[in-house]
Amino acid sequence: MGRLVAIEGLDGAGKRTVTNALTEELRALGASVTTAAFPRYGEDVHADLVREALHGEHGDLADSVYGMALLYALDRRDAAPGIRAALAEHDVVLLDRYVASNAAYQAARLHQGVDGDVVRWVRELEIDRFGLPVPDRQLLLRVPADVAASRAANRAREDASRAMDAFESDDALQTRCARVYDELAAAHWLSEWHVLDGSGDLRAKAAPNEAMAVLAKALYLGK
Questions:
Q1: Domain segments of the chain: what residues?
Q2: Domain Thymidylate kinase-like: where (predicted)?
Q3: pTM of the predicted model, to two decimals?
Q4: What value, to the nearest 5°, has the Cα angle with vertex 53 and ends 51 and 58?
């Protein structure tokens, strides 16, 4: 059975870059690796409803914290059989966002913390009721909210298909979300967390790759 690793962080934190770098380093160690990202836009109807709501469709759906959280959770519930199959076939399964994203963003929207009602509800819904696999490790890519926002804006300018949505455009929400992520990591919510500094240039070749190599060994050889 493989190891399930979730990579978490703000929009624009660089999760895709880290996922790619970790995949490369893990494969260099001889590990069999596969990846997935949530929400699964273009693959799952619940994810597509999320995207449409965040871009102004479906009336006041985006205003409902629990309604949006349920859509995110249903996307993962439908993906669960594929995750289990991937764990049976690969040494490491890397997920760009997972259950903790739902907990962090919905808590931030409600001005709650790690001990709030919505974080407990997300765990009960996704882990206890839907039976999603619990991650073996979770990585928090920590960046200042203003840095993440700048990256998200640049990404949107460079790629029309990645226009900023209502959550990405809300600076105050992103700041609160960063605090909740820190609380989740400190509490080792669901499983053990590792915190990575993502404030530098993630595309640089030297230091980030060295950090990824060390992390890959911890995730794979140290299991």
A1: 3-220
A2: 7-186
A3: 0.89
A4: 135
